[in-house]
Amino acid sequence: MYLHGTSIINAEGRLEIGGCDTSDLASRFGTPLYIYDEQLIRTRCREYRDAFQATGLNFQVAYASKAFCTMAMCRIVEEEGLSLDVVSDGELYTALQAGFPAGKIHFHGNNKTPDEIVMALEANIGCFVVDNFLELQVLNELARARKVKANVLLRISPGVDAHTHEFISTGQIDSKFGFDLGNGTAFRAVQETLKLEQLRLLGIHSHIGSQIFETEGFRLAADKVTRFAAEVRDQLSYTFTVLNLGGGFGIRYTEGDTPLPSADYVGAIADAVKTNFAAYNYPLPEIWIEPGRSIVGEAGTTLYTIGSVKDIPGVRKYIAVDGGMTDNPRPALYDAKYEAMLANRALEVEEEVVSVAGKCCETGDMLIWDLALPAVRTGDLLAVSSTGAYNYAMASHYNRIRKPAVVFVKDGKADLVVRRDTYDDVAGNDLIPERLMKQPVAK
Ligand code: LLP
Q1: CATH 3.40.1000.70 for the 38-296 domain, yes or no
Q2: N or C terminus: fewer CB in 10 A for the chain?
Q3: What are the residue ranges spanned by the domains of the chain?
Q4: pLDDT of residue 40
């Protein structure tokens, strides 16, 4: 397993993250456990900020909180000077509860409900990324009722194929998101927005996909949106002041993954933007991006205890962990691949090839196929790396399994940032209608 950030193998031969021995973390907090390397999160935030500062552009880096949204995470994002992108009332609530500055929150989503829009208007958030014509009308009406003006970016669908897994490509033409650039819809959306009195149009937004390892897609998207900006200026005499190019920067899950340093993505975006806008003699807009996975993905490790082992001679050896698709649905959903190691015997030589099964009642609940490990014993700790993005965020209560705790580790200290679910968290919302109540048995 690749050791990210502050992860090391310590003198006892055990995996240590943020100066904390994972065996100690397991005893203290139990397993499964999501462990986040706080220093690595902060480093990733700073890398984006520094890279932009070097370009001389005006910018905002908004952390896409869908990747991992908790109050402690919002605090780190604020401390590191980033903005925050939310996509639901739940994420907005989390940010506001953490005291995140509302003016630095951007609200996304292809079907924001009127209640969500009201909540965001009342919090006075920084900007709405409007996805469709219905939202333009509803937002305008709700803002009028409150006598406020809302800042707006229009999400356009640029028609760029980001060469990634089909389920996580969002920039192609056949997409549920945004106003299409190619067929004139985006242009009509700008005309419409400019007519709506309660909306202040800042610019446009484009997101081409996720887990992208090349800069070409971003360059293409930048080309298309610049051309569009020029068209809008020439025909409607309106100049955009913000261009948001979304997120999608790739991370390393396994050996085959070859992400670029964030400075390379930022540099390519900056070059494209500077060249294009100069070519159209267009004042340089502020450039915004929205990384999610690349801020938190590699900083997360999931720690499990190995339980049952099923050896089918000549076929396969399954080892089962105390979690599975409930804390990491990505292998089942996207055929995602992960690396892992025995955290308590990290220096021992690999002796066997096993497949890691979860504990859910479902054949598809497999985390890793064909993993080389030292001879596995029940009670060993298995650490799976790069589980920081879209794992806790997409965790479920399938089989009524309780969600794991989350800890942040840094400089030898571990802080609980999400408590492990209680039984009440899985059954506490249940109600038994009176007619189904157990009647006292007559004697
Ligand atoms: N901005 C927008 C508008 C997005 O839709 C997304 C991700 C991001 C930013 C952040 O993208 P990132 O930098 O994290 O790649 N559940 C899937 C990923 C879905 C991504 C959805 N949108 C997964 O586990 O791979």
Answers
A1: no
A2: C
A3: 8-37+298-421, 38-296
A4: 98
Atom 6 of ligand 1: nearest residue by CA position = 247
Distance CA 331, CA 329 (A): 6
Pocket test for ligand 1, best of 45, 47, 66 (most atoms within 8 A of CB): 66
Atom of ligand 1 nearest to the CA of 290: 9
Pocket test for ligand 1, best of 107, 293, 390 (most atoms within 8 A of CB): 293
DSSP single-letter state for residue 98: T
Whether the pLDDT of residue 217 is over 70: the answer is yes
- Measured from the CB, is residue 106 less than 6 Å from ligand 1? no
8-37+298-421 belongs to CATH 3.90.1170.50 = no
CB of 64 shorter than 6 A to ligand 1? yes
- Give yes or no for residue 290 CB within 6 A of ligand 1: yes
Name the residue at shortest CA distance from atom 23 of ligand 1: 390
Tokens matching residue 389: 């993005």
> Which one-letter amino acid corresponds to residue 11?
A
74 is catalytic: no
Above pLDDT 90, what percent of the chain? 94
Q: How confident is the model over 281-328, as pLDDT tens digits? A: 999 999 999 999 999 999 999 999 999 999 999 999 999 999 999 999
Q: How far is the CA of 199 from the centre of ligand 1 (A)?
A: 26
Q: Are 192 and 257 in contact (CB under 8 A)?
A: no
Q: Which H or E element spans position 277?
A: helix 262-279
* Cα–Cα dist 224/243, whole Å: 12
Check pLDDT > 60 for residue 167. Answer: no
Ligand 1 neighbour 210 (Cβ under 6 A): yes
Mean pLDDT of all residues in the chain? 96
Please write the tens of the pLDDT for every residue from 41-55. 999 999 999 999 999
Q: Give residue 173's pLDDT band: very low, low, confident or very high (50, 70, 90).
A: confident
CA distance 416 to 414: 7
C-alpha count within 13 angstroms, C-beta hemisphere, residue 205: 30
| Pocket residue to mutate for ligand 1, from 41, 210, 396, most atoms within 8 A of Cβ | 210
CA of 230 to the centre of ligand 1 (A): 28
- Give the least confident one: 111-125, 207-221, 319-333, 337-351: 207-221
DSSP 14-79: -EEETTEEHHHHHHHH-SSEEEEEHHHHHHHHHHHHHHHHHHT--EEEEEEGGGS--HHHHHHHHH
pLDDT tens, position by position, 244-287 = 999 999 999 999 999 999 999 999 999 999 999 999 999 999 99
